[in-house]
Design brief:
Elements lengths: L6 E4 L5 E2 L15 E4 L37 H7 L8 E6 L5 H14 L4 E5 L4 H10 L8 E4 L3 H8 L7 E5 L16 H18 L2 E6 L12 H5 L2 E6 L6 E9 L7 E7 L2 E4 L3 H5 L10 E8 L2 E13 L7 E4 L3 H15 L6 E7 L11 H13 L7 E3 L2 E2 L5 E2 L4 H10 L4 E4 L12 E4 L3 H9 L5
Parallel strand pairs: 4-8, 4-9, 5-6, 5-7, 7-8, 13-17, 15-16, 17-20, 20-21
Antiparallel strand pairs: 1-2, 1-3, 9-10, 10-11, 11-12, 13-14, 14-16, 18-19
Length: 456
C-alpha cells in the first residue's frame, strides 16, 4: 500500500492543504500551516455483526433528567445555569494570568466541601506547585485529588472506572497529547482528538469534565474552532490587568442561558464573588462631572449599572483620534455620525475618547443613548442631570428605540438610589415606575437638554 502523503493543517481553522503556503486559503490567516502526518483510514466493508446496536429512546419517555450539581459559589452557579450537569463537558478560556486555574481550584475545593469527588489534572504544574497555590488561597485542607500528566491515555486508564470522580478538571487541553498521533501537543489534530476522548469519558461515566483552554492574541480559544462545537458550554474569563474585577461570561451553554456573567474580584486570598456588581462599579462616583453617564444595562438575566466616560477635545491633527475601551469602535463612529447629521453638532474634527469604567465590556445596543449622553456632556461641559440613568438604542434617522427588560433596569436603578431615567418611549410602562422616567423620542431631544440652558 502506498504511503500516505502528509498534509499541512491550519492551526487557526483546521483546514487541510496538500502543500505549505504562507496564507491559509480557508480563513486567510498567515503562517498557521503546520505539517502533520496522515494515518491509515479504517478499512471499509465492516461487517454488520461487529457493529453495536444504537439505543433508541422516545423523547417523551425515559428517566427524568438528573438534578444539577451545585458548586456552592453563587456566581459560578449563575453562569452554568443553576449548577453543573452530569456527563457534560465545559471549556473555559482566558488570557494568561487572568485567574482561570485559581477559579477552578476554588471551585474544586467548594465541590469537595459538599461531599463530591473532584480530580484536578495539570499539564503545566507539578502537584507540589498546585499544593503551594492551594495553601496560599487557604484551601490546603481540601480533599481534591491531584495529578500531573499530559497523556490522555494515562488519564483514561486512571479515571475510566466505576469509581470515577464526579468532576474532572484538565488544565489545559493544549498540553494534552495522544501517543498514536505524531503531531505535537497543541496542534489541531491533538487538541481535537484529546477533547474527543475526554468527552467520551464524560458520557460513559457521567463525569463532569472541565477543560481549560489557552487563547490567541485575538482572544479566541487556541486550536480548532470545532472544539467549541464539541463541548456543551464555552466560557470566557475576562478582565483588565489594571482592574481587580474579573468577568466570567458564557458564550455557549446547552443547559442554560448564554450571555450570562459572573463577577469576581481578585484579592490576596483568591477570587471573591461580587453579589452586587452595580454598587461595586459605581462605588467611586463622587459629585456629578461632565462627560460621565450611568448606563442601566443587562448582562444575561442580571441588570447591571456601569459608568460610561467620554472626553471630546479639539484635535491638533488632520485626522482626529478615536479611542474606545470596553465598547464597539464601529458603533461609536455611528453615534458620532448621527450626532453630526441629525443634531447639527460639529464632532468630525475633534478627538473622542470613550471608556467603560471598571474594565467591563458592553455589547448590547441599549448603551447607544448613554454613550450619546456622555459625548454631549463632555462637548458642552454640562453634567448629566444628577441621579439619572440612561439607556436606549439610537437609529440612523435619529429616533430612539425602546429596549427589552426596561422594568428590570429601572428597579436596579431605584435600588441604588437613582431617581430619574432618560429613555426612549417605553412600551407598556407601568404608572408606578420606581423612578421618574423622561421619555425622549428623538436624539435631538437629548441634545437640547445639554445645548439649551433652560432645559434640565
Amino acid at each position: 500500500m502506498a504511503r500516505l502523503a502528509n498534509l499541512h493543517v491550519c492551526q487557526a481553522c483546521g483546514a487541510s492543504h496538500p502543500k505549505w503556503s504562507g496564507r491559509c486559503d480557508a480563513c486567510g490567516a498567515w503562517n498557521t500551516l503546520v505539517e502533520e502526518a496522515q494515518h491509515q483510514p479504517a478499512p471499509r466493508g465492516l461487517s454488520a455483526g461487529k457493529a453495536r446496536a444504537v439505543e433508541r429512546l422516545n423523547l417523551a419517555s425515559g428517566q427524568p433528567p438528573p438534578a444539577r450539581m451545585a458548586i456552592g459559589i453563587a456566581e459560578l452557579d449563575r453562569v452554568f445555569g443553576g449548577g453543573l450537569v452530569a456527563g457534560s463537558t465545559l471549556l473555559i478560556g482566558g488570557d494568561p494570568g487572568i485567574g482561570k486555574s485559581t477559579l477552578l481550584l476554588q471551585a474544586a475545593a467548594a465541590l469537595t466541601r459538599l461531599g463530591r469527588r473532584v480530580a484536578y489534572v495539570s499539564g503545566e504544574e507539578s502537584t507540589e506547585q498546585i499544593r503551594l497555590r492551594a495553601r496560599r488561597l487557604g484551601l490546603g485542607d481540601a480533599t481534591v485529588e491531584l495529578a500531573a500528566s499530559t497523556s490522555v491515555r494515562d488519564l483514561i486508564a486512571a479515571f475510566d472506572r466505576a469509581d470515577a470522580p464526579d468532576a474532572l478538571i484538565v488544565d489545559s487541553i493544549q498540553t494534552m497529547y495522544i501517543d498514536n498521533l505524531e503531531s505535537a501537543p497543541g496542534t489541531v489534530a491533538q487538541v481535537r482528538a484529546c477533547a474527543q476522548e475526554l468527552i467520551r469519558l464524560a458520557k460513559r461515566r457521567d463525569t463532569i469534565v472541565i477543560l481549560v483552554g489557552h487563547v490567541t492574541k485575538e482572544g479566541q480559544v487556541a486550536g480548532p474552532r470545532v472544539l467549541e462545537h464539541m463541548v456543551d458550554a464555552v466560557l470566557y474569563f475576562e478582565g483588565e490587568r489594571g482592574h481587580q474585577f474579573r468577568i466570567l461570561r458564557a458564550v455557549k451553554n446547552r443547559f442554560g442561558a448564554t450571555d450570562e456573567i459572573g463577577v469576581f474580584e481578585m484579592t490576596d486570598s483568591g477570587l471573591c464573588e461580587v453579589s452586587n456588581p452595580s454598587a461595586l462599579f459605581l462605588g467611586e462616583r463622587g459629585r456629578p462631572v461632565s462627560g460621565a453617564a450611568v448606563f442601566a444595562g443587562m448582562e444575561g438575566t442580571r441588570p447591571l449599572l456601569v459608568e460610561i466616560e467620554a472626553l471630546v477635545a479639539p484635535s491638533p491633527f488632520a485626522t482626529p483620534r478615536r479611542a474606545v475601551v470596553g465598547w464597539d469602535s464601529g458603533r461609536l463612529a455611528m453615534i458620532l455620525a448621527v450626532l453630526d447629521a441629525r443634531c447639527g453638532l460639529a464632532l468630525a474634527g475633534r478627538d473622542v475618547y470613550l471608556n467603560v469604567a471598571g474594565g467591563l465590556r458592553i455589547a448590547e445596543p441599549a448603551a447607544d443613548l448613554a454613550v450619546a449622553a456622555a459625548l454631549l456632556s463632555s462637548l458642552t461641559d454640562r453634567p448629566v442631570p444628577e441621579g439619572s440613568v440612561v439607556f436606549g438604542e439610537v437609529g440612523l434617522s435619529g429616533e430612539l428605540r425602546a429596549v427589552a427588560h426596561a422594568e428590570a433596569r429601572l428597579k436596579e436603578a431605584a435600588k441604588l438610589g437613582f431617581t430619574r431615567a432618560l429613555t426612549p418611549p417605553l412600551r407598556g410602562r407601568r404608572a408606578d415606575s420606581p423612578v421618574a422616567v423622561v421619555e425622549l423620542p428623538l436624539l435631538a431631544d437629548l441634545a437640547t437638554m445639554f445645548t439649551d440652558p433652560d432645559q434640565s
